[in-house]
Every structure is written in structure tokens, then in C-alpha cells.
């Protein structure tokens, strides 16, 4: 405010919930979008957006880089997963629009991402360049539906994806971020979107390995982007941003049509700032402590998680467990709270933390410990990417002990061991989701979540047991 044009800045943050947050326990820890999708509750989507927006605004943040509107269709997708509301485009649309409405109702700029859709890819664009092979008919029915509805509903901004889409731009080297046929052709001309187009970070591997940051900056601008974004990416150094700025400045100074393009972006930026009250910004009058980690927000996060826990299968009628159960809990070393939340309920608990890809010696130790347990709970974490987790589950399934598998993040883990008889999905290892999982296992709550994605050959989106099947289980909450 004290320099230049004296126009307040966009202050943006990735704050999706689940694994994508930047403020840690300084703010309320909310579960993932897939958790929200598993509740099937529009009111919970709105309340979560309301709470997150109020906390971000109290800190001084005015732009949230979300919600994610990608439809996660590929079980092997390494970058979207639980960041998505699910695999059903209608579910993603309804939940995404509910959150956008409440973000923007708080004066928070919502940035729907990642257009034209990153959910049906098998490559992480942070690392390399993914490709989405789909014709226009499929795109309209699936990937486009949430974004097109959001633009019609007045979303402030759309973030691009670093993915090639031959069905929209036949140039195999040009990701959507750098494609005029996609950004200007589809968003601007076909859909009439006149909000902000923001790139995903131009320092990601998909850009660095193809065009490089400096050239990509110019190409993204020429394609129609208004905001050129640079994240804290490992593949580039900060001085590269100065080179990118100089290249764009030179282009605008030499080319009158580029100067006009720049003016159109500046107008959109100023219009968005005026609409959300940023041009009239003043420091918050209330102390941050009165809003951040407010007790109501903490309880809301817990309630959302409780309503999402999905019991897909309990053929052996193992759940819920008695507090006196001799329990062995096996979990990834990176999730120590798995043991902590279960110890509140079970006194006779043994624990065994293991590597993401357990060694043979760890599998043998697990089998030895299983002989002293009445029930085994094993937590998996993205087992499709760490195949030895599947080996561990199969080894323990051979033991003469009831086995409960808890998918901590990706529900697609079940595809690695489809014969497992008791299976729980919680869609993220946040504290609220872990605590809700423990509540379910102990019988404090009934299962209420519905699967938000298709598990090909096993279950469809919307499946899930709504009550325990064991004769002695609780009736109600």
C-alpha cells in the first residue's frame, strides 16, 4: 500500500483441506474434499467453506486456490485423489459450487482448479507432462461439467492444468496452460467467461521439462492467462522469475496487441479486487484469536469426518470392537496418530509402525505379533503406489485372526486386495478423520459415509454400509 500504484495485493494460498494446506495447526485442520464428497451433504460443504474462509480472512488472505473441481476417474491418479470430491461429475459440481458460493460470500476470491480437468491422468504434472485422451463429447459430459457450471455461476477465477488435451489442441507439446485454443477458445469465446484465468505454478516439472519458465510465461500470457503463478517448486530458482518478468515486459513494450492484451488482464484484476472489497482493504478490527481454531470450527471438522467414514465391507461382522479387545495396530510410520487415537479406546493395544513399502522383516514381525492379538487393524496409505503394503495385507489375511483394513487416504487401496473381508475408508490422515475412524471402530458412531468414487469391479460411487452388521453392534449413535 505504501509503494507503486498503492493497490492492495492478492494474498493467495493453497487451502483445500486434507493434505493440501499451508498453515498446519495454526488454523483449524479440516478434512479433504473427498471426505466432504463421502458425506453427500451440501450443508457441510457450505459450512466448511464458511469456516475456512472466515479464518483465512482473519489472517489477511483474500484468495483461496480452490476448490478442486477435478473429477477423479483414474484409480492410479498420483496428484488429485482425495483432493477431488469424487468420480461423479454431478457430485463434484454440486459440492464445488456450494463451496464457491460460501467462499465468495465471505469476500474470498475462489479459484476453481485445474481446468480442463486433471482427474483422469496417471502422471503428476509437478514431475512431468500428463496427457488427457478424451474427445469433446466426453469432456463436455465429465471433465467440463463442474467448470462450465462454475463459470456460469460466477466463479471469480479458474486455474489451468499443465496437461495436454489433443481433443482440444492437437499440439502434443502444449499443455492447457499454454494453449490459446483451450484458454481463449473454450473459456473465453465458447463459455463467455470473463473472470480471471490463473495458471498453475509455472515452475512445475510439466513446464520446466517442455518450455522452461521464461518462455512458458510469455506463452501462457498469449494463451489468455491473467495471473501468472509461481510456486515454491523444487525445479526452479527464484531468479528465474525475474527473467520471466523481463521477457513479458519486453513483449508488451514491442507489440501493441500484447499491450492491449495486458490491459484486458489488468481490468479483470481490478474489477475482481473491487468486487471482493480488496481496493478498500483495511486491517481486521477483531483479534485473530477470536476466529482462528474457534471451538465451533473444530467441532465442525470432527462432525464432517464422522459423517464420511465409509464401511464398505464387514462380512465377518468384526466391527465394532469391544474396549477389552487385544488389538494389534499396524500403520505407516508417517502417521503416528493412528496409534494415539485408538489407545483412547483400547487398553490392550500393541502397535507396529512400518515403512511405506514394508520390508520382508517387518512383514515377518507383523505375523509374529499377530499371534498374540484377537483382532488386527492394518492401515494402508496409497497402497497402489507402495505395493508391499498389499503384500503385508495378504500375509496377515492368512493368519487365523480377524483383520480390519483401514485405507487412510486413497479408497482405491482395496483394488490391491479385493478379497479383504472388512474394509474402512477415511479419505485422509487428518486428525478429524483419524479420530472419527477410532469412534467407528470403538462403536461410538455408526457408519454413515458413502463411497465418493467408483472402485472398478468392486463397488460403485454411493455404496457403503449405513449400520453395523454384527448382532451386538450399537443401534444409532
Q: Could you please describe the fold and organization of this structure?
A:
Helix 2 (42-59) packs parallel to helix 3 and helix 9 (239-254) crosses helix 10 (256-275). The chain has 2 domains: 12-290, TIM Barrel (Alpha-Beta Barrel); 309-442, Glycoside hydrolase family 3 C-terminal domain (Rossmann fold). It contains 15 helices and 11 strands. The chain starts with 11 loop residues before the first strand and ends in a 35-residue tail after the last helix. The strands form 2 sheets. Strands 6-11-10-9-7-8 form a 6-stranded mixed sheet, sandwiched between helices. The longest helix is centred in the middle third of the chain and has 20 residues, at 256-275. With 477 residues, the chain is of the alpha/beta class. 36% of the residues lie in helices and 10% in strands.
Could you tell me the CATH topology label of the largest domain: TIM Barrel
Amount of helix: 25-40%
Q: What shape does the CA trace take?
A: globular
Classify the beta-strand content into a percent band: 5-15%
CATH class call of the largest domain: Alpha Beta
User: CATH H-level name of the largest domain... which superfamily?
Assistant: Glycoside hydrolase, family 3, N-terminal domain
Q: Strand order across the biggest sheet?
A: 6-11-10-9-7-8
Low-confidence stretches: 471-477
Question: How would you sum up the major sheet?
Answer: 6 strands, mixed
The number of domains is 2
Number of helices: 15
The gyration radius over C-alpha positions equals 24 Å
Helix vs. strand class: alpha/beta
CATH arch. level architecture of the largest domain: Alpha-Beta Barrel
Distance between the termini: 53 Å
Amino acid at each position: 500500500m505504501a509503494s507503486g500504484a498503492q493497490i492492495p495485493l492478492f494474498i493467495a494460498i493453497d487451502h483445500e483441506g486434507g493434505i493440501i494446506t499451508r498453515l498446519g495447526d495454526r488454523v483449524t485442520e479440516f478434512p479433504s474434499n473427498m471426505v466432504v464428497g463421502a458425506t453427500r451433504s451440501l450443508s457441510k460443504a457450505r459450512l466448511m467453506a464458511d469456516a475456512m474462509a472466515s479464518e483465512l480472512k482473519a489472517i489477511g488472505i483474500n484468495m483461496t486456490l480452490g476448490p478442486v473441481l477435478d473429477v477423479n476417474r483414474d484409480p492410479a491418479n498420483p496428484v488429485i485423489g482425495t483432493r477431488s470430491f469424487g468420480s461423479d461429475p454431478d457430485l463434484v459440481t454440486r459440492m464445488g459450487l456450494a463451496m464457491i458460493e460460501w467462499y465468495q460470500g465471505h469476500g474470498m476470491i475462489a479459484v476453481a482448479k485445474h481446468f480442463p480437468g486433471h482427474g483422469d491422468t496417471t502422471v503428476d504434472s509437478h514431475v512431468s507432462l500428463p496427457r488427457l485422451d478424451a474427445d469433446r463429447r466426453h469432456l463436455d459430459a465429465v471433465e467440463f461439467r463442474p467448470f462450465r457450471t462454475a463459470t456460469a455461476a460466477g466463479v471469480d477465477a479458474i486455474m489451468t492444468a499443465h496437461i495436454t488435451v489433443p481433443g482440444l489442441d492437437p499440439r502434443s507439446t502444449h499443455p492447457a496452460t499454454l494453449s490459446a485454443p483451450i484458454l481463449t477458445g473454450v473459456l473465453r469465446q465458447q463459455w463467455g467467461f470473463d473472470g480471471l484465468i490463473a495458471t498453475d505454478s509455472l515452475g512445475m516439472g510439466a513446464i520446466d521439462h517442455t518450455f522452461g519458465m521464461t518462455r512458458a510465461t510469455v506463452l501462457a500470457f498469449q494463451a489468455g492467462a491473467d495471473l501468472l503463478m509461481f510456486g515454491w517448486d523444487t525445479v526452479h530458482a527464484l531468479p528465474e522469475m525475474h527473467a520471466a518478468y523481463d521477457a513479458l515486459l519486453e513483449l508488451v513494450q514491442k507489440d501493441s496487441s500484447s499491450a492491449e492484451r495486458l490491459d484486458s488482464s489488468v481490468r479483470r484484476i481490478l474489477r475482481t479486487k473491487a468486487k471482493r472489497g480488496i481496493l478498500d482493504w483495511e486491517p481486521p478490527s477483531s483479534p485473530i484469536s477470536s476466529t482462528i481454531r474457534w471451538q465451533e470450527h473444530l467441532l465442525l471438522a470432527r462432525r464432517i469426518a464422522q459423517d464420511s467414514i465409509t464401511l464398505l465391507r464387514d462380512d465377518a461382522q468384526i466391527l465394532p470392537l469391544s474396549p477389552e479387545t487385544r488389538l494389534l495396530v499396524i500403520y505407516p510410520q508417517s502417521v503416528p496418530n493412528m496409534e494415539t487415537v485408538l489407545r483412547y479406546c483400547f487398553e490392550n493395544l500393541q502397535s507396529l509402525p512400518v515403512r511405506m513399502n514394508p520390508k520382508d522383516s517387518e512383514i515377518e514381525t507383523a505375523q509374529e505379533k499377530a499371534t498374540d492379538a484377537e483382532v488386527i487393524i492394518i492401515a494402508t496409505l496409497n497402497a497402489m503406489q507402495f505395493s508391499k503394503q498389499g503384500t503385508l495385507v495378504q500375509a496377515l489375511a492368512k493368519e487365523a485372526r480377524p483383520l480390519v483394513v483401514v485405507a487412510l487416504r486413497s479408497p482405491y487401496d482395496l483394488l490391491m486386495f479385493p478379497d479383504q473381508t472388512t474394509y474402512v475408508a477415511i479419505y485422509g490422515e487428518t486428525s478429524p478423520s483419524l479420530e472419527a475412524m477410532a469412534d467407528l471402530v470403538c462403536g461410538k458412531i455408526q457408519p454413515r459415509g458413502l463411497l465418493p468414487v467408483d472402485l472398478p469391479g468392486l463397488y460403485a460411487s454411493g455404496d457403503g454400509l449405513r449400520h453395523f452388521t454384527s448382532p451386538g453392534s450399537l443401534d444409532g449413535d
